[in-house]
Amino acid sequence: MSRAAEQLFKEGNEQFFIGQFKKAAENFEQALSLITDEPVLWYNYGCSLVELERYEDALNAFAKAVEIKPDFYLSWFNHGNVLNILGRFDDALDSYNNVVELKPDHYLAWNNRGCSLARIEEFAESLESYQKALNLRSDYRPAKYNRAYVLAKIGQFEEAAEIYESALQLRAEDPAMWNNRGVVLTRANRLADALYCFEQAIHLKTDYYKAWYNRGYVLAEMQRYEESLESYNNALQILPDYGTALYNSGYVLIKLGRIAQAAEVFTEYVKLCPVSEYTDLLNQQIARLRQYAQKYQ
Predict the structure, then answer these.
(1) Burial code of 234-267, b = ≥16 C-beta within 10 A, e = fewer?
(2) Is CATH 1.25.40.10 the right assignment for the domain spanning 1-70?
(3) In this predicted model, what pLDDT tens digit does every residue of 213-231 receive, in sequence order?
(4) Is the pTM of this model over 0.90?
């Protein structure tokens, strides 16, 4: 590397580490105009482009680095990460496969490989990948939580709930963890336990609209409709365009016999979500509800 390119490389690294990513990228780009066969320079350039959310350019930079140095596993790893961001999960899987072939103890690559596999619904292989990450580092929490997510996807709700329960022993102040455990307990039909989880999540984060929604769903399943409606309304106060909460509140209103109000809620839902395969059916239902309300209420 020439002295000028080396100076630009050094300045780029310094700018990167203080968060000046645009300046870092400019320095790396200038260095690359002087020398094009230095893989670490391409790699660092790619890292700065990721921070700038210039993902296609970053992908090209990481690809150039591994073209020059095929065993550059860090560049393969970031290449896979960018492909995941871009939604190209099959291609990302190829990159992570290269990483774990070159460096089998790279637990982050095993975890991210699991994420790619989960996104293409290869759940069994995804679980194996997460387990390999955990075999390498048993305290790596993202792999545990990702594994719980996949277990829930394949219907193993009790095992998923156990993972979240174990996590809560370390992160009892994490509302998302309480909410996630509540979701899998709901799927396991352990409604009282799920309700407790959602209420804990709300206690920790009062504006947690997903937990309010989930609480409403569980209460409706328990036929506690007034409380369910209150939860859905709380979710809608936090996020007024929360279509699913609005839709479900309409059905709770029907259960409560408040037919005219239900019709108004469904009308509001159609305005909020006008493009749906169920719009025509819902409009028909609204008309029937209004007729019923006019006749009997």
Answers:
(1) bbbebeeebeebbbbbbbbbbeeebbebbbbbbb
(2) yes
(3) 999 999 999 999 999 999 9
(4) no
